[in-house]
Fold each of these.
Amino acid sequence: MEPIVRKLPFEGVRVADLSMMWAGPYATKLLAELGAEVLKIESPSAWDNIRTLIAFPDQAEPWNSSYYFNTYNRAKKSVTLDLAQVRGRAVFLELLAHCDVLIENYRADVLDKLGLSYDVLRAANPQLVIVSMAGFGKTGADRALVGFGPVIEMMSGLTSLTGYVDDDVSYKCGVSYGDPVAGVAAAGAVAMGLLQRRRRGVAPIVDLAQREVAATFAGGAFVAAHRDPAVRHHGNRHPAGAIAPRGVYRCLDEARHRDTGAYALIAGREADEQWIAVSALDDGQWAELAALIGRPEWAALPLTERVARHDELDGAISAWAAPLEAGEAVAELRDRGVAAARVLDMVAIHDDAQLRARGFWIDLPHPNMPEGWVQPGPSWRFVEADTAPKVRAPLFGEHTRAVLSELLGYDEATLDALAAEAVIADAPINPGVG
Amino acid sequence: MTKVPRRMDQPLQGMRVVEVAGGVPAASCAHLLAGYGADVVRVEGADVPVAPHWTLSADEATYLLPGKRRVLLEGEEAGAAAALAALVASAEVVVLDGPPGRFDVPAWRAANPSLVAVTISPFGWTGPDRGLPADDLIAYAAGGLLSLTGDPASTPLATGGAQALWFGALHAFAAVTGAYYGAVVHGEGDWIDLSLQECMAGALELYGPAAAYGEPAALRFGNYHRAVWALYPCADGYAGVFCLERQVPALFAAIGEEALREERFRDPQQRPQHDEELSAYVLSFMVDRTGDELARLGAERKIPFGKVRTPAELLDSPALADRGFFDTVQRADGSTVAVPGRPFLGMDWKGGGPERAPVEPIEAVLAGWSRS
C-alpha cells in the first residue's frame, strides 16, 4: 500500500521534554516520530549527559557531535533554559502553558528541589499531562534509590533470569535495557494521558517507575516463583524444553582489524567472532538439521531425547558450523526450513538484507556527522501514514530563540538579556563536565 | 454474555480489542490494553494461526489472560474468516502475532477506517525474511542484542524470559495507544507492521550508532565494562555499581581508600590505565556489604548501586507492596498468585481476577459490540 499523506497521530501535540540520557529521550523520540513537537529543554550548565559521554576530542563542538545523542534525539527542537535560575524557571513555567505534555526522568526528588513541584507545574498549566520516569517511582520506600538501565534491570528480576546452563552467575543485558523498556512504556503513558484528558477533561500525572515496567517482562517467572522461589539458568536453551536443540554456535571469524582509538574506552574489544543462532522448532526441522550436520541417524530422535542429549547435539552442530562463514551456514539452514539467524553484531546488522529491504537504516544529514552516517528508522512501521523521520537531531540551543519568540512573544532585547544572564545559550557553559 | 467489570473512568474505556490467538507478543499487548480499560476479546481455536513456538506457557497464561473475554473460532475456513472479519469490523483495535500474510489486513482497514491493526512478527510483513520461522532466540539474534550479551569468554547469551517477545509486546501496546489517539482525534486508524528485529535494532544504545559512525563492532562485555560500571559479588549475592563520571567521586568517598585520592584514579582520562587496580578496590568494598546495605548507601550518597533480585525476592518487597504493584489472579483450583500489575501509576488500572474467562459465543460479543 502506498503511503497516504495525512496527519500523524500526535500532530498538534507539544511536549516539554526535560529528560536526559536514554530512557526519556527514547520515549520522546517515539513521540516525535508520530508527529509530536518535542521541545528538548536543557540547561546551559547541566545538559544531557550523553552529548559528552563519549569523547570527541577532534570535534569543534563535541556536544553536537555525538552519535549517541544524535540518534535518539532526532526530530526534536533544542531549547536551553537554566532551571536552577529563578528567571529560567519563570520562562519554563510560561512555556508550559503552551505545552500539552511534560516528561522527565530525573531522580525522584529533583523536580521538587528545583522548585517545580507538581503543584507549581499544574498552576502553570492545569491541563498538562505529566509523565515522571524516576527509576523506582516517586513514592515508596525505594524512591531514593539511584539507578541507570543496568540497575533497573537487576532490581526488576530480569537479570536473575539470565545465565549459562547450571551456572549461578547472572548476566545483565548488553545494553542498558531498563532504559528503552521504560521509554516505550512512557510513550504509551503519554498517549493514554492525552486520551484521558480529551475524554474526561482531566490530565493525569503519571508516576512511571522504570523498575516496575521491567518487572512486567518477567511476569511468567513471578508466577513460577510461587511454586519454586529458586531461579535456574538455561543459557540459550528453551527453559521448558519445548524446543531442542536450541543454541548459538561459532562460525569462522571475520577479521576486521581497525584502529579502535578512543572508542576502546567504551567498547573494550573488537568483535571478530561470528556466531549463528539455531532453533529446531519441531520434529521436521530437527530431521532436516540432523541431515544437514551429517547425522541422519538422529533424525527420528523425539523431543524428550533431544533435550536429554542436548550437549551431544550441540557438539555436532558446533562441529558442522565451525568451518563455515556465518552467512553461508544460515543460508543452508534456512534452505532446509530450519529456524536460524546470524547473531548480528553491530557492523553486520547494518548490512542485513532484511533490514535493508525494509529501508530500516535512514540517512539524515547532520552538519556535525560524517556523510553517509545512518541511524535506525522508526520501530513502529505505520503502513499508511508516513512516519519516516525527516529532521535531524538539533544542535545545542538551536531553537531557543525561535521557540521563545514564537510561543512567548519574546523580542530580541529580552532574548539577549536572557543570554547575558546565561539563562539561555547556544553552547554549554562548561563543556566537558556534562 | 460475561461482562468484565470496568470502571468507567479508565483511559481506554470504550476501546474494543480483538486479540487473535496471541502468544506473548499479542497477549501481553492486549493484557496492558485490558488493564487500562479496553474490552479485549481473545480469539482462540483450531482455525486460528497461533504464532509457532510463541504459544503461552501455563505461567504466562496465568499472567496474561485474566481480564479478557474469550471466543472460539471453529468450523469451515470461510465461515471462520467471516466471523473474525465481523469481529474486527466492530472493533477499534486488532492485535495479531501469527504468521505474516495469513489475514487480509488491508481489507479489514478498508472496511473499518478507524481500525488500528498491529501485526507483530519476527521480521515484519515485508522483505525477504518475512515468512521465516523464528522463536525468541532467533529474533533476539537478528535484532543485535544477542551479540552484545554474555561473557566474552563464552557464547553470546540471550537475556532470560524471552525478551524479544516482551519488548515487542510493549512496543505494540504503546504504538497502538498512539495510533488509537490519532484515530480518535483525526478519524483515521492505521496498520502497524511491527518487526521484533526492528524493535531491538532500534535499541542498541550507543553500540549500534557507533558502528554506523565507523567504529568497530563491540564485543559482548559480560558483567564488566569498567571498574565503575560493573556487576560484582556482594555479601549476599551479586550487586552492581554503574556510575557516570559525576557519581565517581561519591563512590570513591564511600569506598574510603586513600589511594583513590590519587590523580590517576580521579582523572577519567588516566583511569582506564589503572582500571584493574581500581576494580580490586571496588570488589573488596562490594563483597563486604549486602545488597540492602549498598542500597541504603546508594540512596544516601546518590550512588547507582543495585542488587540482582529474583522474582521471589521482589514478591516480598515492601517497597513494591507499598506502591500496590502486584495484582492477584484467582486460579481454577481456588488458589491465588500475585503477578506484576500496572506498568505505571496515575491512570486507573484493573488487573488480576479469574485466571481465564469462560468461552462466549461470537454472536454474543457481536451483539454487545453492535455499533447501532
Amino acid sequence: MVDLPRRSLLAGIAAMGAAACSKINESETAKSLFKAAEDGHRITHRALAGKQGLAPEYSRAESSPTFRGNGSVTVADPFYQEQLARGFPEWKLEVKGLVEKPLALTLAEVRALPQRTQITRHDCVEGWSAIGEWQGPQLAALLDAAKVKEGANFIVFRCADVLYGRDYYESIDMVDAYHPQTIIAHTLNGEPLPEKNGAPLRMRIERQLGYKQAKYVKAIEAVASFDDIGQGKGGFWEDVAGYQWYAGV
Amino acid sequence: MKKHVLSTRLWHWVNAAAIIVLFMTGLNISNAHRYLYWGDYGFDPKDAWLGVIKFPGWATIPQHYNLALARDWHTTAAWPFGVGLLFIWVAMLVNGHFRRDLTTTPRDWTPGAVISSIKAHSGDAAAQGYNPVQRILYGMVFGVLLPLMLFTGLAISPGFQAAAPWLLDVLGGRQSARSLHFIAAWGIFGFFVIHIVLALIDWRLILEMFTGGRRADAAAPPAPAPAPPEPDAMPPEDGAPAHG
C-alpha cells in the first residue's frame, strides 16, 4: 500500500533533482517543457486579461526622471548618423511582407497619423524598470492601411542597429500587433526620441519585456512564420541568448 | 490514520523540488541586476535601497551566469509551485489539516507558549500534534511567505499586470514587488534551514514524509491486536539464523 507511492515519489524526486543538471538544459525534453511553460503563461495571461487588456498607465508625476538606454545605444550606419544629425528628413518606415499595399512613410507622415500618448513602464529582462511618456500611431492603423493579407501570423520589426555583427529584429503575434497600446513611438517625454532610446522610431509593446521593444525601426513586415528569419527564433536575443519569445513573464 | 496524508506528502516533495529550483535560478536572475528599489520604477544603483552581492556559481542554477536558462527554469518551476500552493490550501481546508494544526489562539502567541513549545519539541510530545511555535511558523509560511512569493512573482510579470493591475497597487509598484519577492525568498530560505536542521535531528521525520507515518494521538479505541503470524514467518528474535 505504502510502497507504490513511495517508490514513484522517490523516482520523481530523483528525476527533478537530476533536472537541475546542466546537460538536461540542452535536451529536447527540457526544451519542450520550457516551451509548454512559456505557452502556458501566454495563454493564461491572455485568458485572464483579455486580448485587449491594458497595461497600467501612469501620470507624468510618476514618470522616472530619466529613461535608461540599454542594449544598442548608438547606430554605426553612416546614413543613419547623417539622418540623425538632420532630424531624419529622408528616413522611411516601410510596411511590407504579406500586405496588399506596401507602404513607405516619412517621419512627417507617421506623425500625421492619429496618435496615441501613453505613460507606461518599461521592464527590462534584467529586472529594472523605467517610466516614460510615449507618443505615436497605433501599429493597427498602419497594418489596416497596408491591408494585411490572410495567412499573416506575425509582425516582424527590422531595425537599423547591429549588435554582435547581427541585425536587430523582433517579432510579435497578431494579438499584440492589434493591441491598442502597441504603438510606433517617435516621441519620449515630449521630445523626439533620443538616439539611445531608438530614434527616430521604436516599438512599444507594453505587456512584454524590454527586448521586444525594437528600436531604430526601418521596416514592419507581416509574415506567416519567422522560421527563415535570423536563426528562426523570432528575435535577436531569442537567437543570440535563447531568451523566451513570449516576454510577458 | 496516517500522520501525513497523501496530498500533503505529494505536495511536500513536489514543492520542495520546485522551491530549490526557483531559489537557485532566482539567485542567477538576481545577478542580472543586483539592485533593489521601492516604488514603480528603478534602474539607477544610486536610487537602490539595497545592493545585493553577486551570488557565486555554486549557489545558482545553472552554475554560471545565464539569464535565459535561469528564466526558463524559473518560469517553468513557477507552475508546480503556484498550482501546488493552490492545491495544498484547498486540501488543507478540506481535510482539516489547517483547522487542526495551523490555527492559533491568542494564548499560542505568549512567551510561555513559545518556551513550552521549544521544551516539548525535543520530547515525545512533538508527536502529539503541532505546538504553538510550529503553528505560528507553518502558518506564516503557508499564510504569508508562500502566497507572497506567488503574488509578487505574478505582479512583476508584465503580461500578468493587465489581468490584475490592482496587484501592483497593493504591493506598492513593480520594483517594490520585486524587492518583496527577494525578501520573501530569503524568508523561505530561513524556514528551509530550520526545517532541515530539525528534521535531520530525527531522520524518522523525513522517512514519515515519504511513508505517511502513523499519527500518535489516535483517540479512537486501540485497533484489535493483529493475528499472530504463522510460525514459519516469524523472524528470529535474536538475529541468529533460523535454520542451521
